[in-house]
Amino acid sequence: GSDLSLPDLSALERLTGKAPVPHGDALWQTLLTAKVPLQRGGSVADLEQATQNFCAELLRNNAATGNFQTLLLCTLDHLELAQAEPAAPAQLESACGAVMLVTIFLRHMVETLEAEARDLPAHARPRARHTHAQHTHVLARTAFDRTRSQDLLPHLELPASSDGASAARPPLGRQFVEALLSFLVGCELTDASYTLHMEAMAALLVCM
Predict the structure, then answer these.
(1) Using CB atoms within 10 A of its CB, is residue 47 exposed (0-12), middle (13-18) or buried (19+)?
(2) Which end of the chain, N or C, is surrounded by fewer C-beta atoms within 10 Å?
(3) How far apart are CA 54 and CA 87, in angstroms?
(4) How far apart are CA 175 and CA 83, in angstroms?
């Protein structure tokens, strides 16, 4: 059985559903401070199995909702708080949960799109294009060489805003990788931060 509680499932249903969840919505605080789905432990395999349907739903609905991008924004916020001196245990725990969720969803996206790319006839497979836009709008180049980058990139881009603010900001994928590296390099490994350090390294592995 799953260790996810009903409130946790309800939050995941909203996150992966057909309606956008604004950045300031209370859902993010609820989801990222819940105990079970945010901590690695003996139930990680059960957690990932339980969230497969949610991963598929997010991939299906995110083009319309942008909820994965909002999750990335929340994760960046939590990683910044986790680098405070000293960071409170609650801040480290929330950052850990956010990174873990991003990793689970991102791994599913990469693996799903990679499988779809393998199933395409050779003449229909997209060629890697070495353009400035591609290099600056990816999490890690190797992951996108294996997938249909034109399908994955929209999940990592903020929608255009009328004032052009989103276009002026670095791509979310790059911000995420830089935030992970900043935490790993800048924060001392302690008993309190150990789990977040492990999650950050796991996330970088998915990005490679």
Answers:
(1) buried
(2) N
(3) 31
(4) 15
The C-alpha angle with vertex 166 and arms to 196 and 95, in degrees rounded to 5, equals: 10
> Residue 132: phi, psi to the nearest 5?
-60, -40
DSSP-derived secondary structure for 64-79 = HH-HHHHHHHHHHHHH
Tell me the three state secondary structure of residue 12: helix
Structure tokens at 123: 């003449």
Are 15 and 58 in contact, with CB atoms under 8 Å apart?
A: yes
Cis peptide bond N-terminal to 86, omega within 30: yes
Residue 106 CA: distances (Å) to CA of 87, 156, 208: 26, 10, 12
CA dist., res. 171 & res. 157, Å (int): 6
DSSP letter (8 states) at residue 87: P
Residues in contact with 30: Cβ distance below 8 Å, sequence separation at least 6, in sequence order: 7, 11
Per-residue pLDDT band for 155 (boundaries 50, 70, 90) equals: low
Q: What beta strand segments (E) does 28-101 contain?
A: none
pLDDT score recorded for residue 121: 53
pLDDT in tens, 73-98: 999 999 999 998 788 888 898 899 89
The answer to whether 193 and 92 have CB atoms below 8 angstroms apart is yes
Q: For 101, list phi and psi in degrees, rounded to 5.
A: -65, -45
- How many CA within 13 A on the CB side of residue 191? 0
Separation CA 82–CA 162 (nearest Å):
32
Residue whose C-alpha is closest to residue 137's, from 164, 173, 180, 177: 173
